[in-house]
């Protein structure tokens, strides 16, 4: 467990430093949210209806933007080979790296949501609802994205492959995340139904993602 803790701390430090990738995702999320009111126009009612979808779409694209660094940096400096050959199960190491990526790149998006919600004319209840759905759903984006990152790490054009693989897997998370946010704001669906499905998607990705990513890394590095 100490090895996994050290791996998590190492990946968080790398992600938070300049050029680590975490700041890029937050800046992209901020840019999308700031520019959208200019594109929609002065219709505040329309902006508030689109607000949850805008925040979720920005979070999805920001998460996708930083996923390519999940294994690429370790592959470039040779540390990925050491992780694969270590006594720690590769599945646990993949889960630790995904957790570190979510803490460094996903959690700041959730923290920034209450502030960015003001730009989209969302009240406090709506903003908290979107933040809660992002807290439940962004782990699914990270752990499903980890599978694509593991498949693309050994390919020269891996960035394009990563987007092709991850986006279809992320669509259910986007659908139920926006549906839960809208249900909490205006109904008529109960909030619990789409939110429970969103939590189930995150739990399923938490179980399947590390095993799939570990199998992809073993096959790609052989």
TrEMBL record:
<feature type="transmembrane region" description="Helical">
    <location>
        <begin position="46"/>
        <end position="67"/>
    </location>
</feature>
<feature type="transmembrane region" description="Helical">
    <location>
        <begin position="160"/>
        <end position="183"/>
    </location>
</feature>
<keyword id="KW-0813">Transport</keyword>
<feature type="transmembrane region" description="Helical">
    <location>
        <begin position="126"/>
        <end position="153"/>
    </location>
</feature>
<keyword id="KW-1133">Transmembrane helix</keyword>
<dbReference type="Pfam" id="PF03379">
    <property type="entry name" value="CcmB"/>
</dbReference>
<keyword id="KW-0201">Cytochrome c-type biogenesis</keyword>
<feature type="transmembrane region" description="Helical">
    <location>
        <begin position="99"/>
        <end position="120"/>
    </location>
</feature>
<protein>
    <recommendedName>
        <fullName>Heme exporter protein B</fullName>
    </recommendedName>
</protein>
<keyword id="KW-1003">Cell membrane</keyword>
<feature type="transmembrane region" description="Helical">
    <location>
        <begin position="21"/>
        <end position="40"/>
    </location>
</feature>
<keyword id="KW-0812">Transmembrane</keyword>
<dbReference type="GO" id="GO:0017004">
    <property type="term" value="P:cytochrome complex assembly"/>
</dbReference>
<feature type="transmembrane region" description="Helical">
    <location>
        <begin position="195"/>
        <end position="217"/>
    </location>
</feature>
<dbReference type="GO" id="GO:1903607">
    <property type="term" value="P:cytochrome c biosynthetic process"/>
</dbReference>
<comment type="similarity">
    <text>Belongs to the CcmB/CycW/HelB family.</text>
</comment>
<comment type="function">
    <text>Required for the export of heme to the periplasm for the biogenesis of c-type cytochromes.</text>
</comment>
<dbReference type="GO" id="GO:0015232">
    <property type="term" value="F:heme transmembrane transporter activity"/>
</dbReference>
<keyword id="KW-0997">Cell inner membrane</keyword>
<dbReference type="GO" id="GO:0005886">
    <property type="term" value="C:plasma membrane"/>
</dbReference>
<keyword id="KW-0472">Membrane</keyword>
<dbReference type="InterPro" id="IPR003544">
    <property type="entry name" value="Cyt_c_biogenesis_CcmB"/>
</dbReference>
<dbReference type="InterPro" id="IPR026031">
    <property type="entry name" value="Cyt_c_CcmB_bac"/>
</dbReference>
């Amino acid at each position: 467990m100490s090895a996994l803790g050290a791996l998590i701390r190492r990946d968080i430090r790398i992600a938070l430093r300049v050029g680590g990738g975490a700041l890029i995702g937050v800046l992209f999320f901020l840019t999308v949210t700031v520019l959208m009111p200019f594109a929609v126009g002065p219709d505040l009612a329309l902006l508030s209806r689109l607000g949850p979808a805008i925040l979720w779409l920005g979070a999805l694209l920001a998460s996708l933007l930083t996923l390519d660094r999940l294994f690429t940096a370790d592959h470039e400096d040779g540390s990925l080979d050491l992780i694969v050959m270590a006594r720690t199960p590769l599945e646990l190491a993949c889960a630790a790296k995904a957790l570190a990526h979510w803490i460094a790149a996903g959690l700041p998006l959730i923290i920034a949501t209450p502030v960015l919600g003001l730009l989209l004319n969302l009240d406090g209840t709506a903003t908290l609802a979107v933040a809660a759905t992002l807290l439940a759903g962004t782990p699914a984006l990270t752990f499903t994205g980890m599978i694509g990152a593991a498949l693309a790490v050994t390919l020269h054009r891996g960035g394009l492959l990563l987007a092709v693989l991850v986006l279809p897997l992320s669509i259910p998370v986007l659908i139920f995340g926006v549906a839960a946010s809208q249900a909490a704001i205006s109904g008529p669906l109960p909030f619990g139904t789409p939110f429970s499905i969103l939590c189930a998607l995150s739990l399923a990705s938490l179980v399947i993602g590390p095993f799939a990513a570990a199998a992809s890394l073993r096959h790609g590095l052989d």
